[in-house]
Structures are given as structure tokens and as C-alpha cells.
Amino acid sequence: MSTAPTAPFDLIVVDSLLTDDERLLRDTVADFATRELAPNIAGWYEDGTLPVSDLAPKLGDLGVLGMHLEGYGCAGASATEYGLACMEIEAVDSGLRSLVSVQGSLAMFAIHHWGSEEQKEHYLPGMAAGSTVGCFGLTEPDAGSDPANMRTRATRDGDDWVLTGTKMWITNAPVADVAVVWARTEDGYAGFIVDTDTEGFSAPEITRKLSLRASVTGEIVLDGCRVPDARRLPHVHSLRGPLTCLNEARYGIIFGALGAARDALSTALGYVSTRQVFDSPLSSFQLTQAKLADMAVELDKSYLLALQLGRLKDAGELAPHQISVGKLNSTRVALEITRECRTLLGASGITLEYSPLRHANNLESVLTYEGTAEMHQLTIGQALTGEQAFRNRS
Fold first, then answer.
1. Across the strands, what pairs with 228?
2. Cα dist. 296→12, 97, 338, 366 in Å?
3. Per-residue pLDDT tens for 218-264?
4. Which candidate, 282, 295, 301, places its Cα nearest to that of 340?
5. What's the per-residue H, E or C state across 158-206?
6. CA-CA distance, 295 to 55, in Å (whole number)?
7. CA–CA separation, 66 vs 128, rounded Å?
8. pLDDT value at position 394?
9. CA atoms in the 13 A half-sphere facing the CB of 83
10. 65, 96, 203, 254: which could join 326 in a potential S-S bond, CB 3.0 to 4.6 Å?
11. Which of 134, 74, 82 is nearest to 307 (CA)?
């Protein structure tokens, strides 16, 4: 006996937990993603490129760049709405969500939260519109999980600062118009807004990637790059600055990774319903249904967690360790689901005709960036025990 299939999120009627405005925004972003992004993503991924200069203005028109920020051309959307937008964009590809996250939750948020009024008025409207592309320089070749050990230095010279050092794995860097760069100073740490045409600034592209291929990634090389003090973020002098920005980006991943998992599961459901094996659809076999059931349950539970964290953030009550709970869970669950979905597609699953393996390859990076799984485990462990275990004790 056959019955009408049920979509994964419909199993527990998750839509009933959203407001009308949240559903409208989600559907608007989903429609844009279906029309403008999905038809091109396999080609972008195969070519290892992304037309950022073309896409950024379209994303600006959609209102998703810095959408959770107030003023300066930003939409002022709720945290939950921002999460839902991330989910719909990453349902197409993690590289596309990375473009949105780096622009809004890292580069724009840093200026909005830590910048002067002049800096906000100068940079944020163009970034919200997508006419100005930003990047965020924190990670270094030898300083990823431990940013306190960054080697990039900023030395005061009259009314200027001279920046020297190298940043690594920087999304958008080769195509960015502006970079928010973090450096050590004599007094601690500082953030600088660097126009990328400044002498001494270069951003060579990182190629031959096996993950996030539909994303532009590069280094930032600062060779005596001179920046006026007026471009130093004035309201932060410690690592609290970049870490606050990272939490904003991690929050978007909580929802975004589930979009990739949902798309992979939907793709697998469509495939097994038509693939004939031993004169029956693959979907009619018990082992297939067991896999599908387990994945749907894990996806739905993770979505409920994401929504709870969104509500906490909208109430101003979301703690850093709670963001770690969400990021650790969503990336783990999404990676497991996309891998399992690939198995249901058999040999077809290794081609770009289907999305699960592309999503899985991307999620290998998403699991790592904005804090590795291990770092989030230790953050949660510290919350549970009160003991800090980030450094070895002799």
C-alpha cells in the first residue's frame, strides 16, 4: 500500500513554530535561490569559481547582506529570520552561504559593532547593497584555533599604522574591496578596515580545493601596509572583537548546515522513489526506509534546536557555549546525512547531477571553520564542568 510522501520537516509540522513574517522571508529567499542560484551551482562548483561581483548586488537587493543589523541600509531582520535565510541559501551550496556570512556576520558586523560612526556611514551602505564586497582577516597559517598567537603586527607610525603579516583561508579576499584585518599591537589587539587597493596589500587566490569550490578563497599578505588611524576600529582592543564576530557567523552555520542536509535528503527521497531495484522502487525496501527515517529524525531534532537558539538570540539571551552546542550538532548531523544520502544514490551519487556528495565535501570545511568540532566540544565541556581545558597543563 502506497501513501503520499511527507517532506522531512513536515513530519513534526515545524512550520507551525514560525511566524507569518518568518515564513514569508524564508519563502522569498528560497524562491530567489531556486531561480538565481540552483541552476548554476553545479557549473560554479565544477569550475571552482563564483561570480561574486555579479551575485553580491543581487543578494543586496534581496536584503540578506547584513540583514540582522540595524540602519545603514541593513534590513534589521530578526536573528531567526537571518537563520532561515542562511538555511535556504546553504540548501543550494555552503559556498554561497559563506559569501553571505562573511559579508554580513564578519566584515559588516565588525564595523557595525566596533566601528566609529564615520566608518559605519562610509562602508556599511555599500556593503549592504553588495556594491562593496568585504572579507575578514583573522586566521593565519599558524594561528587558527588559537588566535592569540597571531603573528600579524600593527605598529604605530605617526597618524598611521603599519601592518605586516599573513592571513590564510580568507573567503572573498581575492575579490574584496575592503578587508577587516586583526593584528597585534603593543597594547593588545586591534582591528583595521583596509581598502584592498592600499599599497602593501595583496590577496593571492587559493586554488585546487576539494571543498567549497563555489567560493573564492585566498590569503591576505600585508607587506608594510599603511593604514590611517581613522580606519582602526576604535571600540575594541582585545580578542573580544574578532571572537564576537565569529559567534555571529557560527550562529548562521547552525541553520545553514541544516539546509544542505535537507536538500541532500530531499534529493535522496526523490531518487529512491524512482530508482527500480529487483522490480520495485528502492524506496520500498526496509533498509532504505530505515536510513531515511533515521536521517529525518536527526534533521528535525536539529531544526528544533536551531529554532530554540534563534529565539534565545532574538531575546538577547544566547550564550557563546549555546552557539557551540548548535554549531557542533548541526555540522555533525548534516555531514552524516549528506554522506548517507550519497550511499542511497549509488554510483549516480558521485556526479554533479546530484547534490549530496557536493554538500558533504563542503561540510568537511564547515565542520572545521568558525571553530573546529574539538574547540566547540571544549567550550561545551567548560560550561558543563567549569574547567578550562583549551591548553595542556604541565
1. 160
2. 10, 22, 12, 21
3. 999 999 999 999 999 999 999 999 999 999 999 999 999 999 999 99
4. 295
5. CCEEEEEEEEEEEECHHHCCEEEEEEEECCEEEEEEEECCCCCEECCEC
6. 32
7. 6
8. 47
9. 28
10. 254
11. 82
* Mean pLDDT computed over every residue of the chain: 95
- The DSSP-derived string for 14-29 is GGGGS-HHHHHHHHHH
Residue 59: name the closest of 172, 169, 173 by CA: 172
Given the DSSP bridges, would you call strands 160-171 and 74-75 parallel, antiparallel or unpaired?
A: unpaired
Cell of 170: 580568507
Query: What sign does the dihedral 137-47-269-345 (CA atoms) show?
Result: negative
Would you please indicate which residues are annotated as catalytic (active-site) residues?
370
Residue written as grid cell 559567534: 247
Grid cell digits, residue 297: 529524525
Cα–Cα distances in Å, from 115 out to 61, 110, 178, 230, 307?
24, 7, 14, 10, 30
pTM score of the predicted model: 0.95
Strand partners, 135: 179
Q: Domains, the chain, ranges and CATH? A: 8-129 (1.10.540.10), 134-238 (2.40.110.10), 241-385 (1.20.140.10)
Task: Name the pLDDT band for 147 (thresholds 50, 70, 90).
Answer: confident
pLDDT per residue as tens digits for the range 171-223: 999 999 999 999 999 989 999 999 999 999 999 999 999 999 999 999 999 99
- Strands 153-157 and 134-137, by their bridges, are unpaired
